[in-house]
Amino acid sequence: MSQQVIVLGGGVIGLAIAFELSTKGHEVTILEKVRCGGQASGAAAGMLAPYSEIGEDPDDFFRLCLESLREYPMWQQEVKAISGVDFEYTNSGSLHAVYHKADLLGLKTRQSWQSEWGAKAELVDGARLQQLEPLLADSIIGAMHYPEESHVFAPDYVKALEGACRANGVKIAEELESVDIKSWRDEIEVVSKAGQTFKAERMVIASGAWSQELEEIFDLRIPVFPIRGQICAYELGEHKVNHIIYTSQGYLVPKANGTLVNGASEDIAGFKTDVTEKGINRLTNWNHNILPFLKKTDPFHRWAGLRPATQDGYPLIGEHPEASHIVFATGHYRNGILLSPITAKVVAAIITDEKTPVPIDLFAPGRFTI
């Protein structure tokens, strides 16, 4: 049965949810304070790399990330087909590189448990590593090769999602500056600063780093905080980089447009998105230890975005504990691009009262409320 749904927030998570819901026939309205994709979404490096980024244990968060990676081949095709907008989706594979023999044991441990989840992981060194990535520094003694890991060009992906939403009939109200939730327990009514009124049967909270502003309204602890992530990019020129290269210090992602994205330097700066010399220097001071040619060049572009981090590092996904028609999908930290397909499918299942494709108890929105 078709329902009227308000999605509060037009970042990659809100757009993905709106796209999935509209594909299933729901009447969806996105409410966005500024512009769709204007915060963390469009500023991301676009890595789809759960094996590289999650090395500790196979909990339900890892499962969420892995399922989303596996959704991407079909998902990105659907977004392109509906929107008519192309964007880079590259199954480049990745190399999780290390410098010390002691770290090789950690990679083997990671390989052991990840293989149980179907990871096609290969520990490479010597000639094989040189063959995969010829420009790597000699000080790198080995790497875990993950052929499944991929990346997207985030700005174009977000534009395509927005285009797909519009093509599906999603109403998008942008540059609202602020919204006031007048009622939500029995009926949902939201009023913009300019006086526009929006009503719906269900509401999805996908407002990222700004979600904490809603604590008093929903009588719920929502510990989502903005983390500034600073990134820079290089022109590759004659140099060729084949894979996502991930290390304990950060990552490098080669893009089809001939650039290399280097991230990310993180700090707590409230809602500031300015770029600092200290933040970028943290990247430029070590990246030549991965690719030596970077020591002789400067980044041509620097930028920053806000990442919505929760108190325990897991997103909030699920129903309000006292109002099932209010659904949360926020706090995805640095995994918003990766988790957009699976979050959309989970929320769509909740809205239609179906079984979610993955367990979500770990992400319960009420877990911080005493």
Automatic annotation (TrEMBL):
A Pfam family: DAO
EC supergroup of this enzyme: oxidoreductase
Keywords, comma-separated and alphabetical: Oxidoreductase, Thiamine biosynthesis
One MF annotation (Gene Ontology) recorded for this entry: glycine oxidase activity
Metabolic or biological pathway, per its Swiss-Prot or TrEMBL entry: Cofactor biosynthesis; thiamine diphosphate biosynthesis
Lineage top rank: taxon: Bacteria
Presence of keyword Signal: no
EC number: 1.4.3.19
Domain FAD dependent oxidoreductase: from-to ranges: 5-349
Reactions catalysed, as given in the entry: glycine + O2 + H2O = glyoxylate + H2O2 + NH4(+)
PANTHER family noted in UniProt: GLYCINE OXIDASE, SARCOSINE DEHYDROGENASE-RELATED
Protein name, per record: glycine oxidase
Organism per entry: Alkalihalophilus lindianensis
Gene that produces this protein: thiO
